[in-house]
Design goal:
Length: 410
């Protein structure tokens, strides 16, 4: 059963992904996130995500929640740097109800003034919660350092200073300018009848909706170097270390050897960082790497919590493994093992209707086309040891890096 890409009567793109399951996942994805905001409105995309669940003219907030959770389903949302998503995953019997509810939220969010002020306080508490987590502080500061003077480096949730002045009219205006048909994709994955799904989508999404001029995305200026180091001191027992490198974006074919590099460096217990930093030297309970790709840029980050007195040693071991990737080609055995790990992990995670939905939506939003899992797998299989070393040499330089620390006040 192959996925299908169609254009609905409303002009919105839909991706239909039938697969064997007893459930169905349906999500609405809008190509508008925190990097599309101005500093004045920082956090407004995340605020809108919250308010979509607060009711429409025909549905109370509790009605929306019960319609999904009351049938054993999962109802959730997220905001990222480049998109906003809200979705439902539930037994396949209730797909048409889920479409009706999600489209009502997309088109008719009320943004009641009283609920608006209440949710503003909730989001401020969310921001404060993350400020109490050393890992979150270190990660947020690292991204700020990697992308200075660009909203890609700004916190997704915004700040108290940017949120407090916002009004319901600001949110309505932002929705009308950003939640455009041309920027929206709906993905349905799991067990469903294609004809019924399309008919329902066309019935609830009117023609000609939201055709305002498309907004522009401020690009990353690579001539501005990352901030070398950010240090925060808090009441903590560990030092949280994060090392990052600014890289190319998701449209660059080097992302496939980069994925292999990430796999061998810091993915899983067999990775070099885990084996060296934790197993050999006992410096950290958990250490790993993570690659984030945006349209025009990316970021490789390495994070670990360590004893304050051994932070310098841990950084030295990390840099040693980085230098090893720069200087030496992967052995055939290492290359094969890493590829099989990445491919196997991808195949297992992509079995579920929900992860299929997220996979197809993410790739379509970033690349503007339907990307099949088989293409991803084949691209990873084609990666050579020379390509991995070339990517390592391209990104691992001091001028391209940043360090983020959260350490004890003492």
């Amino acid at each position: 059963m192959q996925p299908k890409l169609i254009t609905l009567d409303s002009g919105i793109t839909a991706i239909l992904v039938p697969c064997e399951a007893e459930s169905v996942a349906v999500g609405i994805f809008v190509a508008s996130g925190s990097r599309h905001e101005s500093p004045k409105f920082a956090g407004i995309s995340h605020f809108i995500e919250h308010m979509l669940f607060k009711g429409t003219p025909t549905r109370r907030a509790i009605d929306i929640i019960r319609a999904i959770e009351g049938r054993g389903g999962n109802f959730n949302a997220y905001t990222s740097e480049e998109s906003t998503c809200f979705f439902a995953h539930l037994p396949d019997d209730y797909l048409l109800d889920a479409i009706d509810i999600l489209c009502d939220m997309y088109l008719n969010a009320s943004i009641d003034p009283e609920e608006f002020e209440k949710e503003k306080r909730v989001i401020i508490e969310e921001i404060r919660m993350y400020r109490d987590e050393p890992e979150s502080v270190a990660a947020e500061n690292l991204q700020r350092a990697i992308f200075p003077r660009n909203q890609l480096g700004a916190p997704i949730a915004g700040s108290e200073e940017s949120l407090l002045p916002l009004t319901p009219d600001d949110l309505h205006d932002y929705i009308n300018r950003h939640y455009l048909a041309s920027k929206t994709v709906i993905v349905i994955s799991g067990s469903f009848k294609e004809s019924k799904a399309i008919s329902k989508l066309n019935a609830v999404l009117p023609k000609g909706i939201r055709k305002a001029p498309s907004f522009k995305t401020p690009k990353v200026d690579f001539s501005i170097p990352p901030v070398h180091e950010i240090i925060v001191k808090k009441e903590v027992n560990q030092t949280q270390l994060m090392l990052g490198y600014r890289t190319f974006g998701c449209l660059d074919e080097r992302k496939y050897p980069a994925a292999v590099l990430d796999g061998i460096l810091g993915r899983g217990m067999s990775s070099r960082l885990f084996q060296e930093v934790r197993e050999k030297y006992g410096l950290s309970y958990d250490i790993g790497s993570r690659w984030q790709f945006f349209k025009d840029a990316g970021m490789l980050s390495i994070g670990a919590g360590v004893d304050p007195g051994k932070a310098a040693i841990a950084l030295e071991v990390i840099n040693k493994e980085i230098d090893r990737l720069v200087q030496k080609r992967l052995t055939p055995a290492d290359l094969k093992r890493t590829k099989e790990y990445l491919i196997g992990n991808f195949r297992i995670s992509n079995e579920k209707a929900l992860t299929k939905m997220l996979f197809y939506a993410g790739n379509y939003l970033s690349q503007g086309r339907l990307v099949l899992p088989s293409e991803q797998i084949e691209k990873v299989r084609e990666v050579t040891a020379d390509q991995v070393r070339d990517v390592a040499r391209a990104i691992f330089s001091a001028d391209n890096s940043a360090l983020s620390w959260v350490m004890p006040k003492e």
